[in-house]
Amino acid sequence: MDGNISNIKKWNILYPVYMNSKKTIAEGRRISAAKACENPTCVEIADCCNHFKIPNAVELDKAYPRDYMQLGRVRFSLKRDDGTLYNPAISSKKQLMLHVAELVPRHPGRTKKQEAATTSNAGPSKSGKGGKKKR
User: How many CA atoms within 13 Å lie on the side-chain side of 110?
Assistant: First the structure.
C-alpha cells in the first residue's frame, strides 16, 4: 500500500475486544452487542481491513490494557498523507468497527473454528484425599 511505513506509530489502533459481543462495555466493547461478533481475532480484523483496502499492521505482541491476557491489536490508517480517505465508505474508527464486525462471522477461517469451540472443557474434578476416615 502507499502508506508511509515509518509513520506507523501515528496510525489508529483496533483491539479485538472493541468488537467482541462476549464483552461488556466496561470490559472494553465499543459497539452495540447486537452488531458485535463473537471473539474476533487480529488476523480476521486485518483480513477485513485488507478487504476494505485499508492499510493495516498486526501487532501480536501487544496486549489490551484493561485485559492484558488479550494479546494482539491491529494498527490501521483511514487516510492517506494528503488527507483523502482510502475507502470513501469508511470515514471513522466506529464505522470501520461496524463494517469489520459484520464481515468477521463470514471469514473463511471461521466455519472450522466454530465447531471446535463448541466442545468445552469439563467441570472441576474433585480434589482431596480419597478413602475412609478413621474413627
Answer: 18
Distance CA 41, CA 50 (A): 14
Q: What letter would DSSP give residue 87? A: S
What 8-state DSSP symbol labels residue 59?
E
Taking the C-alpha atoms of residue 105 and residue 134, their distance in angstroms, rounded to an integer, is 58
What is the distance of C-alpha 27 from the center of its chain?
A: 13
CB 46 within 8 A of CB 74: yes
Q: What is the DSSP pairing of strand 56-64 with strand 12-14? A: unpaired
- Residue with the bigger pLDDT between 124 and 87: it is 87
Rounded Cα gap, residues 120 and 123, in angstroms: 9
pTM of the model: 0.74
Report helix angle 42-51 to 93-103, nearest 10: 110
The model's pLDDT over 16-69, given as tens digits with 9 standing for 90+, comes to 999 999 999 999 999 999 999 999 999 999 999 999 999 999 999 999 998 888
